[in-house]
Amino acid sequence: MLWYWLVAGAAAVLAILSLRGERGRAAYAPTRHAEHPATLPPASVIVPVKGEDEGLRENLAALAALDYPDFELIVAARTAADIPHVMLPAKVRVVLAHGHDPDTGEKVQNLAAAVKAVRKRSEILAFADSDGRVTRGWLRALAAPLAEHGVGAATGFRWFTPSPAGFWTLLRGVWDAVAAGTLGPGDNSFAWGGAVAVYKETFFAARVPEYWKGAVSDDYALAAAIHAAGLSIAWAPGALTPCFERLPARRLFAWMRRQMMITRCYNRRLWGTALAAHVVYCGGMAAAVAASALGHRAILWALAAQLVPGMLKGLNRARLASQSLPELRAWFRRHTWAHAVWTPLATWAWLVALASSALGDTIEWRGNRYPLRPPGWMVNKRL
């Protein structure tokens, strides 16, 4: 019985401690939303495209309609065959990379080619993903933190808003929102490639192109370069990006495993911490249920102490997301409950994804297979 209490008790303590920072996040987000930058420098928005994503026409149209005084939209691809031409907005530039570097991801090569082609007067480089549908204020939200001292990049994140929201697509959103919940005031450990901006001068001073060389993950490599330059990554909650894509179960867990394999390669400390925490969380749940089945009902209090903080965090994540996406208020009214009630289920999904990502050194993305190497390995190799 003592063993049950030790495991379940440790999980409950860890869950309660995880609530630290939630108040700071809740206070920080409205402050960012209320910002009105005095200046909005000219910007180039780059989105890589490879084939027809669900809702691609609408996603690109949203990028073309940003509420920003001076920006250009660039669609980047390896070849013209990768771009469904009927999907392109009227005012868009197309950059074809024709990349053949076997050590570097195709997406990274496309982005690097687009950066070289941006117009001279652009001062900000912003990167989006083709499966996200940005809001009109997305670029303004990313540009605002860049003017602050010591900030090297600003990042948003995605929020899965599938409609209709089936079981697996909704579970994906609850699972993914946990990562969004780690973003907050101060420096952040990662940037998300679907909503990230950096001053062009900083981009080159921090040697991001060199970190991209030999990389599969553009965002983790960019984050590594920014941090290596002694700069921070600011969270821009107004750049939260709705994603309407739906995935069946057979593709969902493959997608989760790939995300965690990339994290293990590019941020092993973050991956290891997450794995250890979820072993404790799930072990605590299992121990409490097992002890209860043996008649030790009192241990259910430890289970409640573990589950309630996580469910409250899920509820807070959804509440902050709804503030960032008032256009989707109806969606949040229907589905916010899942981000609380399904948090325990998502915890087990996290454990499965993390454990399954412990082995393997290659990933498959969009029909290509890539070896995983640590960030900046080409930079360090030359040194």
Explain the overall architecture.
The chain is an alpha/beta fold and about 375 residues long. Helices cover about 50% and strands about 15% of the residues. The protein has 15 helices and 11 strands. A 7-stranded mixed beta sheet has the order 3-2-1-4-7-5-8. The chain is globular. The model has no long low-confidence stretch (mean pLDDT about 90).
Could you give the topology of this structure?
Blueprint: H1 2-17, H2 22-33, E1 43-48, H3 56-64, E2 71-77, E3 93-96, H4 106-116, E4 124-128, H5 138-143, E5 151-155, E6 158-160, H6 167-180, E7 195-199, H7 200-205, H8 208-212, H9 218-228, E8 232-235, E9 241-243, H10 249-266, H11 268-293, H12 300-324, H13 329-341, H14 343-356, E10 362-365, E11 368-371, H15 377-382
Parallel strand pairs: 1-2, 1-4, 2-3, 5-8, 6-9
Antiparallel strand pairs: 4-7, 5-7, 10-11
Helix pairs in contact: 1-11, 1-12, 2-12, 6-14, 10-11, 10-14, 11-12, 11-14, 12-13
Report a brief summary of the structure.
This protein has 383 residues and is α/β, with parallel strands linked by helices. The chain has helices at 2-17, 22-33, 56-64, 106-116, 138-143, 167-180, 200-205, 208-212, 218-228, 249-266, 268-293, 300-324, 329-341, 343-356, 377-382, and strands at residues 43-48, 71-77, 93-96, 124-128, 151-155, 158-160, 195-199, 232-235, 241-243, 362-365, 368-371. Helix 10 (249-266) crosses helix 14.
